[in-house]
Amino acid sequence: MRKLLLICALLSSLVSFAGEKKSKNNAEGTKEKMEEIMGYRQEFIKLIDFDMPDLESDKNKGITMSARVRMYQTPKGNIFFFRLEGGLTDQKQVAFIEYLDLCKLIQAINVLKTENVKDMQYENVLYLKNKYQITDDIEVGYHIRRGRPFWYIDIQGGGPNLTFGDPEQMLATLNYAKNKMEQLRVTYSK
User: Fold this and answer.
1) Of 72, 107, 124, 179, whose Cβ has the fewest other Cβ atoms within 10 Å?
2) Given the DSSP bridges, would you call strands 77-86 and 93-98 parallel, antiparallel or unpaired?
3) Does residue 159 carry a pLDDT above 70?
4) Helices then strands (H, E): number in the chain?
5) Which one is predicted more confidently, 56 or 29?
6) Is the pTM of this model over 0.85?
7) Which residues contact 161 (CB under 8 A, 6 or more apart)?
8) Does residue 114 have a pLDDT over 80?
9) Residue in 85, 107, 100, 103 with CA at minimum distance from that of residue 153
């Protein structure tokens, strides 16, 4: 009996260690991207934020995420991120999405739109969730409750920070940021 308890204790500690390691690796991936820019190297780095329209929930009136494009000017070239800040709690979450990840996120939402049409065909579904998550702790998706879809965007695991009746507003903001980055890339090219 003692051996069985010892084995169970060891297995549970290994499982919790593996879960901690996975979440730590996701957080480190975001940190590594930013450290690449802001790392301890003897270089000048200029940070410039470009304003853009905020992302506002159409389901939770008055709840918004501030959105902007951030450019880092480094001796090796310019690097662009889409920056989102907001949340439902007093503590605001901040997420940075690189240009290529932003393109993947836009593609994923378009795929999810097609999936949503299929998922709405299920009858008597109490709850269904379909999502896409990138390594920067950004998650977009939808859940269906009693035949009604609710789209959401979640940053840094803070729960659905913003919810929408359809994904078009999210897509418009993400496409605006993508186009802004492309415009800035041309304007500030070295």
Assistant:
1) 124
2) antiparallel
3) no
4) 3, 9
5) 56
6) no
7) 63, 65, 86, 87, 88, 93, 152, 153, 154, 155
8) yes
9) 85
